Amino acid sequence: MAFNVSQLVGHGSNMTLITLQGFQGVGKYRYVYFFMLLFAYIFIMLSDLVVLYLISSQSSLHHQPMFIFIAALLLNSTVGSSTILPKLLMDILSVTEPTISPSMCISQAFFIYFIGASGFTLLSVMAYDRYVSICRPLQYHTLITMTTVRGMLGGAWLAPACLIGGATLLTSRVPLCKLNMNRLYCNIYSLAKQGCGDILISNIYGMLSTTLCVLLPSLFVFYSYGRILAVCMQSSKVFMGKALQTCLPHLLVFINYFITTSFEIFSSRMDANPHSMAPNMMSLLIILIPTICNPIIYGFKMKDILRQVQTVALMH
């Protein structure tokens, strides 16, 4: 459902843009932050695209469910980075306080939350794939078919899209009374706090969405790895070594997501000093750290991908 921007920003033509006040602490370090973020963005895009290309171009990889899920997760981080970093780079160099229209703010908030939520659902799907592979190996090819993989990927993206879409719609229906947001980018909770209407329903729905998109997938990952650990403890050291080799990258990525997302959930509910860049930079790092680490962990920990990287390097 489309929303009326004029209703969001109230009456009067001078109330059409939201000011992002999180840049007030940039000061003389403007170009340092810019080049750091530019380097991070280039690294994320190149490294993600390299691993995605290797997986998609090698028949030995793109027919394996594990690598299909890895590609989906890296595609997620690529889209997420492109949602926020290009505008952020332009805003850092702005000589005036950056602004954003309510409609663009709503769109950015939706994509950021959707990418974060679908990261957890994808990680839970990957945990199930590893659980079946290690705990029920004889049934793996029966349970994890390409039809099942497509269904799991569709569900991993569709469920967060519906839940976050609902939260975004509820937030968009609250008229804005404050147009100064102490953030570097828009998120749903911060946008809701700019409203002058009743946001109780939005808060309740937000907690429900967080539970379904973050807590439940996390509990499933913990359960899956608990079962995997139990099987490993009863098996040989060789079996345990192979299991850890395939599970460790996924577990590292999940722990990374869980810690950074938990920090973001709590920090977004605290009012930061608008003249301090530190809280907002920490919030930005929460987004950057997983997206930077993902291709490193999967690109240099997974032997099959590393072997393909070495082959391509030798060819050139």
UniProtKB/TrEMBL annotation:
Gene Ontology MF term list: G protein-coupled receptor activity; odorant binding; olfactory receptor activity
Topology relative to the membrane: Multi-pass membrane protein
Tagged with keyword Glycoprotein: yes
GO CC, any one term: plasma membrane
UniProt xrefs under SUPFAM superfamilies: Family A G protein-coupled receptor-like
Transmembrane segments: 31-55, 67-89, 109-128, 149-170, 204-226, 247-266, 278-300
Stated family: Belongs to the G-protein coupled receptor 1 family.
Protein name: Olfactory receptor
